[in-house]
């Protein structure tokens, strides 16, 4: 309903909403015509033409050729225009920093991984490294593209102000990360936000992964800590304080290994990347970069190493047990595992599927799959989140 007391503001809000509807349709169905947009959004053709002209002018849509596979005259087709704007996402891992810049369509303009010991470097040095990576990325993006925002993914709890109350995988407590990054960048001219790695990874899955049409989706992060990004009814579940999805301390084995929280047998203590390496590579010693050790485990598993394969099967059963709990609570259509869990999926998932099937009372139950987005999922989700204002129908400034 449009209020007669504030017609200008309300009509403006309607236009913003309609603009978002046009962008959303083109993103999902490109290439498509103006008539296609009108037919599927319910907007009249004149409104669609006006909105499309505006979006083309601001570099968010572009025309691409004609199609004759239709009744009547050929139609000019529309696609998203990723040439002018990008969102920037950074992921802080215990042993790495990942940067992704992506446009409206989600195609990465750049993807970088830098080994970095964030877990031992501390918040101050990590912020310096993040700022240096942002400056380098902005330089590489160049003057022809505008960065609309930056979102940093962190494996821990994040409050609405961008502060990190706790990130055990990094050894952080009470870190004002968003404010610190803004200060290090000296007011960069674009918004800076922080969110949990799990939330941003599930956003990337929902937008760019094979399950983009899934309205009820869970992404389990792999890393020193296990977190869950939760999409329910097409919306991200954050909880009352923004801490939803902190599943790393889900108890699975009362006699399991000790967890940093003081209890035993938590999901992170059993399936976190450090726990996996300790169990399967007892000779590994202190690990500062997890990727080579996970590759070593993969090589041993491919070669048929019996202790490694047995350990992965047992871990797969635990993964299936954890997913069955999430399935009972949330009833997702798909649970996607990322990080080292995705890298080890060929050996984890068969046992996990069997355990899940045995514990699921109503077939066919939830699908359990490996992410295809790799370690960049959180950073890609950050880049996507940085575009959120534009995707919601607000035109870029300038």
From TrEMBL:
Cross-referenced SUPFAM superfamilies: Actin-like ATPase domain, Winged helix' DNA-binding domain
Family annotation (Gene3D superfamilies): 3.30.420.40, Winged helix-like DNA-binding domain superfamily/Winged helix DNA-binding domain
Coiled-coil region list: none
Recorded superkingdom: Bacteria
Stretches assigned to the HTH iclR-type domain: 20-63
Family, similarity comment: Belongs to the ROK (NagC/XylR) family.
UniProt xrefs under PANTHER family: BIFUNCTIONAL UDP-N-ACETYLGLUCOSAMINE 2-EPIMERASE_N-ACETYLMANNOSAMINE KINASE, ROK (REPRESSOR, ORF, KINASE) FAMILY
Protein name: ROK family transcriptional regulator
Gene source species: Micromonospora aurantiaca
Organism ancestry: Bacteria, Bacillati, Actinomycetota, Actinomycetes, Micromonosporales
